[in-house]
Amino acid sequence: MIENVDHIAIVVEDLDSAENNYKKIFGIEPVWRGKHTDLGTSNVLFNFENTYLELLAANGAGIGADFVNNTISEKGEGLLGLVLGTKDIASFRDNIFKSGFLLSDISNGHGINEQNEKREWLYQFLPNELTRGIFSFVIQHKSVDLPFLNGDKSTVKKLEQVVINTNDVDGFINIYRDIYGIRLALDSFIEAWKKRILFFRLNKTTIEVIENKNDEDIAKDSLWGLAWGVQDIIEARKRLLSNNIKVSDIRPGVKEDTLVATISSHTNNVPTLLIEHTKKA
């Protein structure tokens, strides 16, 4: 079934500028700069312990370029999609069919980088009944894993949380736990917020789902923000400030034994948090 949050995609107008922003935020270099020639898009990839981040921009003509340009025209830069990973896309398809949903054919994808190296993958687009407003698909990589850069104690190590808003918590559980097979680690009502919150866990990432009830009849989900894990948040904050990035004071996190700080510039409109776990395993 679903084994990981394969990657998160952010859509940007100027790829070079966005790359520079995130080099400063993460404190590491990207591991891939490439093109999807058949789609009309270019991308930059930053790799972490448990996932990677894709910055995606239009660079020509094609269905991908049209999608990027339309998204930016309607919503501006920001979070574009949640890509879920599997090692067996055929079995995933079988399970979705058994759950009563129709699927398009599996597609082949590839990208070529500046060194003319090629990455290849299979991907499965999902029906609207499952994505519910989030651009999302399932991927199975055919190429070797991306390289990982260690950095230092101030650099970002992993993706801690993806935050999603929904107006239909129970329907979300039905999809992500019962159909995708992702572990539901927490289902709680936060009295102070008057909201129900879910934590799904896979590959050391939490998909945090926040209930936002409204009068819409249609179930709708939306990506909201990201939280990134660091080894030493004090050193990370110093590094960010030295790069003229706006970052809040450090404060205790909602979760016990955590410290957090909010980044408020250079994020290309993505709400962004840093987290340090102070109680080491």
* pLDDT < 50 stretches: none
CATH architecture of the largest domain: Roll
User: What is the C-alpha radius of gyration, as a whole number of Å?
Assistant: 19 Å
Q: How many domain modules?
A: 2
Describe the structure.
The chain is of the alpha+beta class and 281 residues long. Helix content is 21%, strand content 41%. The protein has helices at residues 15-26, 63-75, 89-98, 128-131, 169-179, 233-242, and strands at 4-11, 32-36, 41-47, 52-58, 78-85, 107-113, 118-125, 135-141, 156-166, 183-190, 195-202, 205-211, 221-230, 251-252, 258-263, 272-277. The two termini are 28 Å apart.
Characterize this entry briefly.
The protein is an alpha+beta fold. Helix content is 21%, strand content 41%.
What is this structure's SSE topology?
Blueprint: E1 4-11, H1 15-26, E2 32-36, E3 41-47, E4 52-58, H2 63-75, E5 78-85, H3 89-98, E6 107-113, E7 118-125, H4 128-131, E8 135-141, E9 156-166, H5 169-179, E10 183-190, E11 195-202, E12 205-211, E13 221-230, H6 233-242, E14 251-252, E15 258-263, E16 272-277
Parallel strand pairs: 1-4, 5-8, 9-12, 13-16
Antiparallel strand pairs: 1-5, 2-3, 2-6, 3-4, 6-7, 7-8, 9-13, 10-11, 11-12, 14-15, 15-16
